[in-house]
Amino acid sequence: xxxxxxxxxxxxxxxxxxxxxxxxxxxxxxxxxxxxxxxxxxxxxxxxxxxxxxxxxxxxxxxxxxxxxxxxxxxxxxxxxxxxxxxxxxxxxxxxxxxxxxxxxxxxxxxxxxxxxxxxxxxxxxxxxxxxxxxxxxxxxxxxxxxxxxxxxxxxxxxxxxxxxxxxxxxxxxxxxxxxxxxxxxxxxxxxxxxxxxxxxxxxxxxxxxxxxxxxxxxxxxxxxxxxxxxxxxxxxxxxxxxxxxxxxxxxxxxxxxxxxxxxxxxxxxxxxxxxxxxxxxxxxxxxxxxxxxxxxxxxxxxxxxxxxxxxxxx
Length: 315
Hints:
Layout: H1 8-11, H2 15-23, H3 30-40, H4 47-60, E1 61-64, H5 72-83, E2 97-100, H6 105-112, E3 118-121, H7 133-146, E4 150-154, H8 157-161, H9 165-179, E5 183-187, H10 196-208, E6 213-215, H11 227-244, E7 249-251, H12 259-272, E8 285-287, H13 290-303
Parallel strand pairs: 1-2, 1-8, 2-3, 3-4, 4-5, 5-6, 6-7
Helix pairs in contact: 3-11, 4-12, 4-13, 5-6, 7-9, 10-11, 11-12
């Protein structure tokens, strides 16, 4: 059974039907996926295209701080950097979003007001997801009420790995409803899913439940984002669009630190799902350190030399 052989309206009516559907998805060729990801990672681009890619990658960054020691001052400083990543160059574009814990949403909302930059919050008992559904829904509603227009939720990996797919589906659907008009990014925590087949199944499950984005990782578990895992997720959104007519975004997060890495992901997006996904509305980087390297490489292209180590703020 494949994704196109069963009406999707039928597959979520029972745990048995959902399990049959998810386990009927085509298996992932692990060696093939790794080989294709490696091959795409060797592509090189010329100077003009590289400058365009760097600016695009900056516009795709979800600038993130998710530490227990986060303070209002740190969040305000990060929001200022999101608005104007390079204060010396007004042509440098802003980032896509700021991503913070729910408690910091009111601070970020005030600092971003009028900027057009999205405000994401990791609600739903991030990063473990180990909380009752009622707590996760309250967390989500509170973040949206405080100004978040994107919610990054983490799935219950224990339930997924135990095969309780309908439970995971219903939880995602409930959080989606609690989001109201806010977009929902569903974090799969691929480093805990063990197999590429599970990554494909979790991707489809999240999309069937209404996720607007599927996201690799919390950044708290290793491995986080990898090229092969992101390739599998991109193939899933491509196939989901073909089967349903609904387009879903992808967000690799965790461990993407260099411009070289970011460009590898952009090449993969273009080659796998096409340039329609080369847009911050459909592809994001979850990162805290990537932006500085993008800014340094941008300066190098413009001036011929790298900025000093103290030129950009440390996040």
